[in-house]
Amino acid sequence: MARERLSVVVTRRLPEPVETRLSELFDVRLRDDDTPMSRAELTAAVKDADVLVPTVTDTIDAGLLGQAGERLKLIANYGAGVDHIDVATARQRGILVSNTPGVLTDDTADMAMALIMAVVRRIPEGLAIMQKGDWEGWSPTALLGGRLAGRRLGILGMGRIGQAVARRAGAFGMQVHYHNRRRLRPEIEERFEATYWESLDQMVARMDVISINCPSTPSTFHLMNARRLKLLKPDAVIVNTSRGEVIDEHALTRMLRAGEIAGAGLDVYEHGTDINPRLRELENVVLLPHMGSATIEGRLEMGEKVLLNIKTFEDGHRPPDQVVPSML
Ligand SMILES: NC(=O)c1ccc[n+]([C@@H]2O[C@H](COP(=O)([O-])OP(=O)(O)OC[C@H]3O[C@@H](n4cnc5c(N)ncnc54)[C@H](O)[C@@H]3O)[C@@H](O)[C@H]2O)c1
Ligand SMILES: O=C(O)[C@H](O)CO
Q: Which residue ranges run through the membrane (predicted)?
């Protein structure tokens, strides 16, 4: 007798080839329009699906998991970060959680480097002059930025993406420093010629550029708070491609306005799309709409990871990218 297909609910529109493959393999309910599900729609989804495929724009908290039906056994997240999912509660309720690490590492690290270059070399200011038709020709003194080679980069969170940023920064001649929950093995430090700082405060105070690459967890919430931001050198730049919650956005905005921090490049925000309007007014700030992993290749490979996680689970094994609370 043919095995009953898993019922899978996908909360957002995914790239077409991913949706097609999901539909071939499973009994899939796809989203008609590219908006996040309402709470009521999410509740209905967890009530009768075997597998939920959410994204970063869905809040899968204890309240929602409390409404989940007996059938819900896997939350196969389309994305690496799982801070929007209450992984501990899911585990208590016997629901597995998986994510899509690795396939978006290079893309997100590219974006971190792009932000570093954009801020340090003042690219948006140059672009604005060109777009307004205000360029009056080459000048020895206009739009002078800083040289990347020789600048000290401090990476907060030296995991997959942090190390990919280190590799790129090394190629640009930057000096790589890092702070991480655990120190890397000596051979990996050597590979990046990276200096480890046990004290985040001490690292922050000495860097020219800080790149945030740790996940958002209770222990990283406002790791860059007002006190720590004040330790930054006034000519330092901060770049965030991880999650907005790691930086106190209000304090950062205040200090950027006051000229106490030279610049910032942000892909992610503390309150999602509700961005502090004052950030938008600043010339020394480059803002992107959470597009670190936004490449065609990356988004297709994220889909392949989701498929593999669900298929492996269907075959009676643990999904290869299972996330458990102790990893967070
Ligand atoms: N902007 C984007 O589009 C985008 C894309 C992918 C991932 N992300 C974000 O980037 C994060 C990192 O992804 P990754 O694949 O590199 O994860 P990872 O797990 O490989 O690396 C995270 C690193 O942070 C370290 N860390 C955790 N808590 C820490 C703490 N309190 N202090 C210091 N270090 C700490 C971990 O030890 C680990 O080395 C994801 O969790 C996600 O939030 C954003
Ligand atoms: O964490 C990630 O994969 C990206 O931020 C999108 O979810």
A: none
Integer CA distances (angstroms), 116 to 113, 131, 169, 211, 301, in order: 5, 22, 10, 8, 26
Query: What is d(CA 130, CA 133) in angstroms, rounded to the nearest whole number?
Result: 5
241 and 261 part of one domain: yes
- Closest atom of ligand 2 to 56 CA is 7
Q: Whose CA is nearest to atom 8 of ligand 1?
A: 242
The CATH number of residue 123's host domain is 3.40.50.720
Q: Closest residue (by CA) to atom 3 of ligand 1? A: 292
Ligand 2 midpoint to CA 192 (Å): 25
**Residue bearing the CA closest to ligand 1, atom 21:** 159
Quick one: 65 and 112 in the same domain? no
Which atom number of ligand 1 is nearest to the Cα of residue 163?
Answer: 16
d(CA 81, CA 268): 12
Distance from the CA of 307 to the center of ligand 1, in angstroms?
23
Q: Whose CA is nearest to atom 30 of ligand 1?
A: 181
Mind listing the pLDDT tens digit for each residue in 3-55? 789 999 999 999 999 999 999 999 999 999 999 999 999 999 999 999 999 99
Residues 291-304: tens digit of each pLDDT:
999 999 999 999 99
Same domain, 78 and 134: no
215 lines ligand 1 (CB under 6 A): yes
